[in-house]
Design goal:
- The structure holds two protein chains of two kinds.
- By secondary structure, chain A is an all-alpha fold.
- Chain A is 75% helix and 0% strand.
- Chain B is extended and about 55 Å long.
- In chain B, helix 3 packs across helix 4 and helix 4 runs antiparallel to helix 5.
- Chain B is 70% helix and 0% strand.
- The N and C termini of chain B lie far apart (58 Å).
- The chains are: A mainly alpha, B mainly alpha.
Chain lengths: 181, 210
């Protein structure tokens, strides 16, 4: 069945169609939320909020973009809201978290590189990190990212460029890895 | 430099592939948790309620249009004889001024409404009219979104986010759960819709004739 037909059935109140639509998209939405949050529980929450919001406002979906793009935009917004809420909570409870993020030393160069990269990505300012995750890891283009985050395409490009610079600086000791690639 | 960026991106793509990699989602468990909400959200509404919404929405649209025309005429007043309205093309600056005035008037109404809802949520006050008022504003928002007028991407985006938020408020059941209310409260607070409306609205005009 075409997705547009499925959406029409959901609009008519068909719960089986709603479940089909959910099944078709939960993998991508949950993966995106997990990439953005790094926290399975928070990603679960974001996924649930995104689907509730999408079903509540399905009447506003006009089909200009694909349903997936529209849903991703809602998911990004929901995830950012939860990240910010969590950040406020963490700020208030900072002392309790201290010392819990010490990475275990490792001897494997490849593992070390990945560890350093992941730490460097985590250390990026949020609005750079989100663009980086969406572009480099999730494979969205700047138009789609602009649409999802409500920012101009040029801003998305600028944020990616700044994220890239910061990662390059953080990983300078591994420079040979990409120059020789 | 560009080639180097591409090489670096390719390197990052490979090395970051498992950054915050997701487990397989617990699809069934997550669905079970949201299923009642989804059922409520997509349930067909009673025909009388639809009719009421249509009447309220149409009245609101008419009021908005009348108000917009009135504001437009007022803002385009001039000591010289004004050209007849019939000669104005949809692209004319007068038309754009009317459309802008209507949008700003609508955003001002929405800001008052959202601030009130936020206060009611904070205070735990029930409001029987909340859904009806939200649907009225929703209808007006959709009329503005559907109009083929030029507007900045920021305002277009703001109207789209407002539409989403109003749809959420309209869908809030009268006997809403704590989860419903906290979700809505979070949407209002963190979506930045109220601050963005305030940033869009112009400062009150200074007294004329000074």
């Amino acid at each position: 069945m075409l997705e547009s037909e499925l959406i029409e059935r959901v609009r008519a109140g068909d719960m089986a169609a709603a479940r089909q639509l959910y099944d078709a998209h939960i993998g991508a939405v949950h993966r995106l939320a997990t990439r953005m949050t790094g926290d399975e529980a928070l990603a679960d929450d974001a996924t649930q909020v995104a689907f509730i919001r999408a079903f509540r406002s399905l009447s506003r979906f006009r089909g200009d973009a694909s349903f997936g793009t529209w849903l991703h935009r809602i998911a990004v917004s929901a995830t950012l809201n939860l990240i910010r809420g969590r950040k406020r909570w963490h700020t208030q409870n900072a002392e309790l978290d201290e010392g819990s993020h010490v990475a275990a030393p490792t001897a494997e160069p490849d593992v070390l590189l990945k560890e350093r990269l992941h730490q460097a990505i985590d250390a990026l300012p949020e609005h750079y990190r989100i663009v980086f995750v969406l572009y480099v890891i999730e494979g969205f283009d700047h138009n789609e990212i602009g649409e999802m985050l409500g920012i101009p395409v040029g801003t998305s490009k600028a944020r990616l460029s700044l994220a890239r610079s910061k990662l390059r600086a953080a990983l300078h000791e591994f420079e040979g890895e990409w120059i020789s690639a | 430099m560009h080639d180097d960026d591409e090489k670096f991106d390719e390197f990052l793509r490979r090395a970051a592939r498992d950054y915050n990699a997701a487990e397989r989602p617990r699809s069934d468990a997550l669905w079970t948790a949201i299923e009642p909400e989804v059922a409520r959200a997509i349930a067909p509404r009673h025909p009388l309620l639809r009719l009421r919404t249509l009447v309220v929405g149409t009245a609101a649209i008419a009021a908005t249009l009348v108000l917009g025309v009135a504001i437009g005429r007022w803002t385009s007043r001039s000591p010289v004889v004004a050209p007849p309205v019939a000669t104005a093309s949809p692209d004319s600056s007068s038309s754009r001024v009317h459309a802008r005035a209507m949008t700003l008037e609508h955003l001002a109404d929405a800001e008052v409404f959202l601030s009130t809802v936020r206060y009611e949520l904070d205070s735990g006050l029930p409001d029987a009219d909340r859904a009806a008022r939200s649907r009225e504003l929703l209808a007006r928002t959709r009329v503005l979104l559907g109009a083929s007028q030029q507007r900045s991407p920021e305002v277009a985006r703001l109207l789209e986010d407002l539409e989403l938020l109003l749809a959420e408020i309209a869908a809030l059941p009268p006997a809403s759960s704590k989860l419903d209310r906290s979700l809505l409260d979070e949407s209002i607070r963190n979506g930045d819709v109220i601050p963005r409306i305030r940033a869009t609205l112009p400062a009150p005009p200074r007294a004329a004739g000074a």
